[in-house]
Specification:
alpha/beta, globular, 17 strands
């Protein structure tokens, strides 16, 4: 339990770090923003000046090696998550790492092993944030039999972000930065896993319709290997069938993005926009459903991280064990579509 000032160093200071993490930590009494290291000293200095961070580091090693820094917030792209998380834990520092957890399941295992070797340190991932108000209610409806036997879940994530062929290359389309993470598959798989538990087996197919884009840094065309259209059939450990439909070339889809749960006694539709639910017992029409009283959460990532450090509160959203499970799912999907076969998660 830490009673004094908690000093946090930041490695990577992109949009989520500057819009969410830094303000979140600033709002907590007894937390000091000790240092920031960004892609360049100039960009790091801009962040330090804006938020009053004490020091700008030019190399992440300066943060890992600083005995005065207690915790590290890693806000880089996934290609650095394994290295920086492991180095921070080895240096005796608590870790809050941005999602997606890693480039692949092998890297996620290394991160989890480093965390398990140091059980007194907190290792937390930034959680999938879309269902913070609803997830406890959905888990209760599944656990108490209100939905009956869950038979199918349908996940729909469609958008038109890839329709413009002139749009510059995004880092998420670069496998050397993003690994096997594909569109929003991981964040929705984490959500499904939160509700339903682990997946056992997947069958997937994918396509890349926009195969190249201009890299704004080099000015050259970059060949894209990450899919922009993906379908997955999955079987969960509890016997439910889950279908995922993701695409970024889809203008005006018929329904809003979200997840539908079809049980033997009722149907629940959850919509990403606004974290809204409707509920329909068999034979009835859907009607709005509010979260159970006292269960609706909100963005509390930074406060949860600090509470885990100071009070030894367990990490609920999201632990490295959960991250490994969604990275296994992501890898299994990648292997299935690229090899043209069904893949069990225990293969990955």
């Amino acid at each position: 339990m830490t009673n004094g000032t908690l000093r946090i160093g930041f490695i990577g200071a992109g949009a989520n770090t500057t819009q969410r993490h830094i303000p979140g930590f600033q709002a907590i009494e007894g937390v000091e923003l000790a240092a920031v290291c960004n892609r360049s000293r100039e960009s790091g200095k801009r962040v330090a000046d804006e938020f009053g961070i004490a020091r700008v580091a030019e190399d992440p090693a300066a943060i890992f090696d600083d005995p005065e820094i207690d915790a590290v917030c890693i806000g880089t792209w996934p290609y650095r998550h394994r290295e920086y998380s492991v180095r921070a834990l080895e240096a005796g520092k608590h870790v809050l790492c941005e999602a997606r957890m890693a480039m692949n399941a092998a890297e996620a295992r290394e991160m989890l092993a480093a965390a398990r070797a140091r059980p007194r340190l907190v290792a937390q991932l930034v959680p999938a944030p879309f269902d913070l108000a609803s997830w406890r209610t959905i888990r209760r409806l599944l656990a108490d039999g209100t939905l009956g036997d869950l038979r199918e879940a349908h996940v729909t994530v469609l958008g038109d972000g890839s329709l413009d062929p002139a749009r510059p290359l995004h880092w998420r389309e670069r496998s050397e930065y993003s690994g096997h993470n594909t569109m929003m598959l991981g964040i929705f798989a984490e959500t499904v896993q939160r509700w339903l538990g682990p997946t056992e087996r997947v069958v997937a197919d994918a396509a890349t319709f926009t195969t190249s884009r201009r890299d704004p840094e080099s000015g050259e065309e970059y060949e894209i290997g990450i899919p922009d259209s993906l379908g997955v059939f999955a079987r969960t450990a509890n016997g439910a069938r889950v279908s995922y439909l993701l695409g970024s070339h889809t203008h005006a889809p018929a329904a809003a993005n979200g997840i539908s749960l079809y049980g033997s006694a009722a149907t629940l539709h959850w919509r990403q926009g606004g974290d809204r639910m409707t509920f329909a017992p068999v034979g009835e029409e859907p009607r709005p459903l509010d979260p159970d009283p006292g269960t609706a959460g909100a963005w509390n990532v930074e406060a949860d991280f600090v509470a885990s450090i100071r009070e030894s509160a367990p990490v609920e959203l999201t632990g490295f064990e959960d991250g490994l499970r969604y990275m296994q799912f992501t890898d299994a999907v990648w292997r299935s579509w690229s090899e043209g076969r069904a893949v069990a998660l225990d293969e990955v």
